[in-house]
Amino acid sequence: MSKGKGIYRSRDRKIAGVCGGIAQYFDFDVTLVRLIYALATVTTAFSGVLVYLIAWLVVPSEEFTLDKPE
Length: 70
Known about the structure:
It is built from 3 helices and no strands. By secondary structure, the chain is mainly alpha-helical. It is found in: Cell membrane. This is Phage shock protein C (PspC) family protein.
């Protein structure tokens, strides 16, 4: 059973993979997503930290699968 398209925490992670997962879902550059997140966090009195922690708990982690060569 394959997983549907959804937001998953990425294995390309600096902390928990939340920004990487968002970047994969929307097909954005992960560095751009991290910069936007950092800017939004600083300009909103660091409320982005709380949002990130909640996303870390709620968003499932991307599962590691070994693809079989065809």
